[in-house]
Amino acid sequence: MRSLAPPVALTMGEPAGIAAEITLKAWLALRNTGSPFFVLQDFDHLSDAAGALSLSVPVISISRSDEASEAFNEGLPVMSVPLKAPVAVGRPDPRNASSVVDAIRLATEMAASGPAAALVTNPIQKSALYEIGFCFPGHTEFLEHLAGPGHRATMMLASEQLKVIPVSIHEPLSAAVSGISTAKIVEVARAADAGLRRDFGMERPRLAIAGLNPHAGEQGSMGREEIDVIMPAIETLGREGIDAHGPFPPDTMFTARSRAGYDAAICMYHDQALIPIKTLDVDGGVNVTLGLPFVRTSPDHGTALDIAGKGIADPGSLVAAMRMAIRIAGHRGKGFGE
Ligand SMILES: NC(=O)C1=CN([C@@H]2O[C@H](COP(=O)(O)OP(=O)(O)OC[C@H]3O[C@@H](n4cnc5c(N)ncnc54)[C@H](O)[C@@H]3O)[C@@H](O)[C@H]2O)C=CC1
Ligand SMILES: NCC(=O)COP(=O)(O)O
Fold first, then answer.
1. pLDDT per position as a tens digit, 183-234
2. Which ligand sits nearest to residue 129's alpha carbon?
3. For the chain, what is the largest distance between any 2 Cα atoms, rounded to a whole number of angstroms?
4. How do the residues of the chain divide into helix, strand and coil, expressed in percent and rounded to 5?
5. Ligand 1 pocket, 252 CB below 6 A?
6. Of 74, 223, 244, 318, which has fewest CB within 10 angstroms of its CB?
7. Shortest CA distance to 120 belongs to which of 12, 16, 45, 197?
8. Domains along the chain with CATH numbers
């Protein structure tokens, strides 16, 4: 099948992890679907990975994104971003960190200016990037910076069974808890409401707001954040016409019965959001950044250094990220659809 829409741009992610393997496997999964993508990666590294993993994927060098759709029918299109040092499987090398960041910048530019329908990012080893002075906690914050003033990035993880949006992202738990405020909850819930309408075509998303404390505070006897901070946020959102309810006890709000009552859960901190979705569906979960002027998704997992090079990495989440990026691009009127 051929596609008339622009291809999706995929970044290299951490070269010492499973990114090359899941990228090659994603091409095998998507090659006949009319959903072309190209990867910004070191050509030789990817070719070597295909050989080492015995994956029968022709790797095709392209120099412009508009060559990708045609090439995709024959093999995996690669726009080469050279690495600076040989890759040692499972051991990130800070000498390659600048190439990892360059790939993100380049792919973002293409997604923002049109040659790519969307940006999909492979997982990065954040600690390796910090060693070269990368000063963003993750892609989400970096992409917000690249998007420029006036754009606020909001992290959402989405699977068929659950969507979760953490109020704080990459913060120590103590800082996340002490930093909870009515204003932050309102801001994140507004972004979730707008993003679900714009990118998922929902008319009036139903938001479930999580509590923070056991039993959502048990009427204040196990913590007062629900009464003092979260409830005022829900009241503000209600006055704005946003369908937000809660605060719900965090231990029961992710059961199948509870999930049937809402479209997305607004969670008070990173792990409250990510533990349930990864437990339910780590191979189908997708990380989506709401609020950017370009489409960005990513697999929900990390670099998996412990299994790099073993040939056992599951590409499911990356494939789901590709599919979701294409669906969102369609919602944003980029003429894409499967
Ligand atoms: N979007 C991104 O760039 C993300 C990056 N990370 C980064 O990844 C690094 C490692 O993070 P961890 O917490 O160890 O999480 P991880 O997801 O890399 O690994 C956790 C466990 O899941 C397994 N696993 C992960 N993906 C898999 C796959 N596709 N198939 C089979 N097994 C898989 C790993 O082998 C490991 O046992 C950190 O530097 C973290 O910051 C983590 C999450 C997202
Ligand atoms: N745990 C999710 C995660 O770390 C992904 O972050 P980002 O790199 O997408 O900002």
1. 999 999 999 999 999 999 999 999 999 999 999 999 999 999 999 999 999 9
2. 1
3. 64
4. 40, 15, 40
5. no
6. 74
7. 12
8. 1-151+294-337 (3.40.718.10), 161-280 (3.40.718.10)
- Measure 126 CA to ligand 2 centroid, in angstroms: 9
CA distance 151 to 148: 6
Residues of the chain falling short of pLDDT 50: 1-2, 336-338
Residue 301, ligand 1, Cβ within 6 A: yes
Distance CA 23, CA 277 (A): 23
Binding positions for a divalent metal cation = 170, 215, 270
Residue whose structure tokens are 């996340």 = 176
Distance 183 CA to ligand 1 centre (A): 32
Q: Is the dihedral of CA 120, 41, 7, 32 positive or negative?
A: negative
Task: Please give the number of the atom of ligand 1 that sits closest to the Cα of 316.
Answer: 29
Residue 144 to residue 240: CA distance in whole angstroms: 25
